[in-house]
Amino acid sequence: MEHLEHLADLLPTYYARLFPFPDYYRWLSYGNANTFSHREFSFTLEDDIYLRFQSFKGLKELELEIKRLLPFKIDIGAVYNVNPKDYHKGANFIPVERELVFDIDMTDYDDVRTCCSSTDICSKCWKFMALACKILDSALRCKRGIHCWVCDSSARTLTTTERGAVAEYLQIIEGGQYMKKKVNLPGDKIHHSIKRALEMIEAVFVPFCVEEQDILGTDERMENFLQIISDDDDRQELRALFGQYNSSKDRWNIFVKYIQNKKTTGDKKWYQYRHLIEEIMLQYAYPRLDIAVSKGLNHLLKSPFCVHPKTGKVCIPFTANTVDKFQPDNVPTITTLIEEINEFDLKDKTEQETYDLNAKKIKDYKKTSINKSLRIFQEFLWNLSNERKESRLKQNGKYSATFCA
Amino acid sequence: MEYTKKRRLTIKPKNNGLEDIYQHDLQMYDFPPRGELLLTEFEQLAKERLRLLQHVENNAVRTDLKTLEERKQNLSTALTKDGLKYYAHLLYAKSCNSPTETDLEYRRKDHISHFILRLSYCFESDNLSWFINQEVEFFKLRFSSLDKEGVEKLLNTHKIECQQITPEEKDKFREELHLSTSSARVKNIDVTEFYKVPFHKVTDLIRSRRVYLNQGIAFIPQADLVSLFASYFKKNLYDGMPEARMSVGRMYGDERITSCLKSLNNVADRISVVWTTDTTPVDKLDELSKTSYPLCMRILHESLKTHHHLKNSGRMQYGLFIKGIGVTMTDALSFWKTEFTKKIDSAKFDKEYAYSIRHTYGKEGKQTNYTPLGCPKIISSSVSAGEYHGCAFKHMDQNSLRQKLFNYGVPAAILYISAINEIADLAREQNYLGACTAYFKFIHKRMPDKLISHPNVYFAESRVILANNGTELENKDRLSQSGRFTSPGLASPSIGTPRNIDKGIGTPLRNTMTPKRDRGSMSSTKMGRTNMTPVRTTRATPKRIETHLNDDDIAQLMSEDI
Ligand SMILES: [Zn+2]
């Protein structure tokens, strides 16, 4: 992890030349100036000074304030009934609208991933995210990432209860430290939405979880796995069986065989095991959502295009289609972006001579690796404005964007 | 609605018109009653309705009643025993088309009494949500008694957005409908009618994944129509509240009515917190966690001591509990800080955690004074990986629960194998309160006097019993011998003895409920401690969004429907 003691020195250039203010404004105004001016922003300044309930009349004011305050972090809150800056202390200050947001925290995968832990993330465990993206995408017909923002108008106006219902509908991994089996599918059948997720998981489960993550590869991992089996006798037998094999894959296969055998032999425990294989696959690979974030209207969430104060990585959008190719290590950092501009400028000396901030702004993006992300963002904005045009005729349509933490 | 000043009830020719007004056994209460009423009847109807709702609530927390029929039977018996035969009758009413005079009279009482309680419960949001929750619960039970005709009649008389699906649609989504609808409720897709409704009208079905959802439209089978109706019913009730408040406003001149209305919500005997008014010193918590904590709190305490950390929901559940047992805010701050700073530095603690602790004591943000969470709230909480909160009997699997009970030496003297079995079996049967009571029984070697429905009630019951047993004295001796207490005065038997009782169900109460000890804790000597760490200007007090909830999140966490 690189050191960023000089973030304060880089931010003026970043906000002056790279932060996409016009597109950012276009997004958050959703075609309505009030939607923007009633939106809460919060800034974390240098030394952890934290300012809540900032709001801005328009693009100009936002741009000026950000360039003046140089926030280390920007969070986006809800749209309120009145402008937050002047009225947040009033009695009738209520949130009225917010994107439906999903947040996935990589630390929640610590008990099922073996490559990293805590906030670290490598290309192996990015696959958990990639899978999560695809599953949520098919469930919501939207695109999301670590933070998924569902931005269409019907999603923005959901109530807290409705958000909670959607979040819980998608949340199937439950249970704390003392609940080893975290997925329990009721009834004889598996709900359509879970079935759909399972199809995606089954396609990658063996190469990804069993082999690469090596979930049955060591004694400790086997023990963790066996804790999911509540029946003492079966756990013993499986433990003994696992001992006869060496690879994670062989152990998984013998486990599947063992459970399926319960069905063919008409074991009276079969009912208890009817969904076990599916449940375990879900426990190891289904998206782990922080549903508190999705439920609230007024939860603050990190804004896209802001810079991570420790790593310097820029929070950039991506789509479900490109998520497999997305390399968490290759996310542009503020340092590399500024270097890219400088290199480009060096090569293109004529441009450097007639250096004019405002005229060159668009070009500055294009000089850097953030360009691709901006194109994704612009495409999403285009879809949003189409939704607005269409909605005058009919309702519905789902457009959203995805932003990487 | 208008209650005219005249106290005479003049039902002119008997039941004239009642049959037109009350066409259905099950009402949506979408129009107020008209006419005149004797004040005595007004009072009696109101009190009976309140008793009804209390029975409904008591019935709803009975996790041991498995089937709908059992629940209804249990409620019916309780109502009959309490002299509320007409409600027992309404509970099973099918909406017969040719009502008898008795039927009509019952419907009238149902109607009027509901509206009187509206007047009493429409002001305070805690009261209101309690009232509406019980009314909705009763509505659902009654709905289940309706025959096909009864349901159709209800559907036709109220504007309920719902469209039966066509045979073509059924063919198109056959597989999805089959997979997504419980076979216990729907035996055969072909003979079941399905209805399309906007998903936000049936959030309970979405939440529990009981119906097929496509593009925001839920496909609900006939058997689940109750969810749709209940959601309309609930909305009706909420929408009617401004009108109810205006009606009360118009009655202000009438002292007798207003005092009657006031008395109604004072007597509501809800799941109550028992606040402990004496100060409990934090160095007693280790001991108390073993003798007097319910299992959920004992586990939280143990996890905190072991890991020197608890995630947010765990801090809320445990933090409010110790607030309820008489730990002052200053002590709570130092208690959490002592533990957390074994892992993080003290500046980080002050920055990231101190705020939310002060907040639970009503000292930050909106200054709401929060009440310790009750069992229904705890049982319904969601628990994720790495978390220890929730109800031990619900959120622990059987192996972990048995292991934990064994480690905690349940019980010391009796045949512990059977004790563990008894508790774990009750938990498996989802009788969480029963399991908790059994745990109490084995720890204290006797049953609690009160029904355990709140961790702080458990604690209070335990303190009373232990104080009477003189166990406290033994403890004191033991503790002083171990040298942990230099002053015997600290282990005074009065510690943790419950004093005042207030009502609430784990929802935020305004400052009126602030226990007196809070003011004491702000005394000048103790204020010094909070000044130890330099804080920037209050305007820009640094805090981290990721690590603590903001005010609204806490308020929401505390007030969500169970
Ligand atoms: Zn990794």
UniProtKB/TrEMBL annotation, chain A:
SUPFAM superfamilies: Prim-pol domain (SSF56747)
UniProt cross-references to Pfam families, sorted A to Z: DNA_primase_S
EC number: 2.7.7.-
Top-level taxon of origin: Eukaryota
Record keywords, A-Z: DNA replication, DNA-directed RNA polymerase, Metal-binding, Nucleotidyltransferase, Primosome, Transcription, Transferase, Zinc
Leading EC class: transferase
Molecular function (Gene Ontology), one example: DNA-directed RNA polymerase activity
A GO-annotated cellular component: alpha DNA polymerase:primase complex
Listed GO biological process terms: DNA replication, synthesis of primer
NCBIfam families for the chain: primase_sml
PANTHER family, per the entry: DNA PRIMASE SMALL SUBUNIT
Annotated family: Belongs to the eukaryotic-type primase small subunit family.
Protein name: DNA primase
Automatic annotation (TrEMBL), chain B:
CDD domains: PriL_PriS_Eukaryotic
GO molecular function: 4 iron, 4 sulfur cluster binding; DNA binding; metal ion binding
GO cellular component, one term: alpha DNA polymerase:primase complex
Protein name according to UniProt: DNA primase large subunit
Domain DNA primase large subunit C-terminal stretches: 286-459
Gene Ontology biological process: DNA replication initiation; DNA replication, synthesis of primer
Cofactor note: Binds 1 [4Fe-4S] cluster.
Cofactor(s) for this UniProt protein: [4Fe-4S] cluster
Organism of provenance: Frieseomelitta varia
